[in-house]
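About this split. The held-out portion is used to measure sequence recovery: a designer receives only the structure tokens and must propose an amino acid at every position. Recovery is the fraction of positions where the proposal matches the reference. Here is one held-out target exactly as it appears in the evaluation file.
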């Protein structure tokens, strides 16, 4: 049986991306989806949703890009209630004290109130934010907030530029270096540092390859990304 979140009245692959014939086809499409969920998906998994009605005990904080092509529950095959999710442009975690805002609050709440046991920072292929940074293009003046936000990845850009890579390798290097940087930022958060010291928390960096449906995992000791099979073996040896 497919996980709850994958079930739809219409198989995902056959589902039209949008309904035509209205002034507002996107909104109607969403409303139709919400109705389909209530009528067809919810009843099949009612015990699960009832068990979640008044409490959540997610095991993982999953921090990823806002990019529409990433579906955290789908790529991890988890059910509602398992992942506490934080999304933003570029899967960024500002270092503690730099920008106390949404991400810092999510991290603190997930660790101290929800007692998550893992934090995954997941970047992805073809990331617009990383492509923008890698190209060195000046983010348009009409997007001052995006420009300010991406300063939290500036150190990753400096590292990649210093390596003087061939052009076709720069974006992937930027995506990977950003994961490494954001893991470093994550550890500056007091809640994270405390739980790491007690060995009650693990942090991991991933890159999701959209076109191949594959996740690679950052091995901090080796300083390199590895396959899921390699990561599993490494974790099992611990
Ligand atoms: Zn992205």
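Reference sequence for scoring:
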């Amino acid at each position: 049986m497919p996980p709850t979140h994958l079930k739809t009245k219409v198989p995902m692959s056959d589902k039209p991306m949008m309904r035509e014939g209205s002034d507002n086809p996107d909104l109607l499409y969403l409303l139709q989806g919400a109705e389909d969920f209530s009528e067809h998906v919810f009843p099949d998994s009612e015990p699960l949703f009832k068990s979640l009605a008044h409490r959540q005990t997610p095991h993982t904080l999953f921090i990823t890009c806002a990019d529409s092509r990433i579906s955290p529950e789908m790529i991890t095959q988890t059910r509602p209630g398992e992942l506490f999710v934080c999304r933003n442009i570029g899967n960024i975690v500002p270092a503690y004290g730099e920008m106390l805002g949404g991400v810092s609050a999510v991290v603190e709440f997930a660790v101290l109130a929800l007692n998550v046991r893992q934090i995954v920072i997941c970047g992805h292929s073809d990331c617009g934010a990383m492509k923008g940074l890698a190209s060195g293009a000046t983010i348009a003046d009409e997007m001052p907030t995006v420009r300010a936000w991406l300063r939290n990845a500036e150190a990753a850009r400096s590292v990649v530029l210093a390596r003087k890579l061939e052009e076709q390798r720069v974006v992937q290097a930027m995506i990977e270096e950003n994961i490494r940087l954001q893991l470093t930022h994550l550890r500056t958060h007091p809640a994270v540092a405390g739980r790491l010291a007690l060995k009650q928390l693990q942090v991991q960096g991933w890159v999701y390859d959209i076109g191949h449906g594959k996740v690679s995992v950052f091995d901090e000791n080796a300083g390199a990304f590895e396959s899921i099979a390699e990561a599993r073996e490494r974790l099992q040896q611990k």
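Annotator remark: The longest helix spans residues 167-187.
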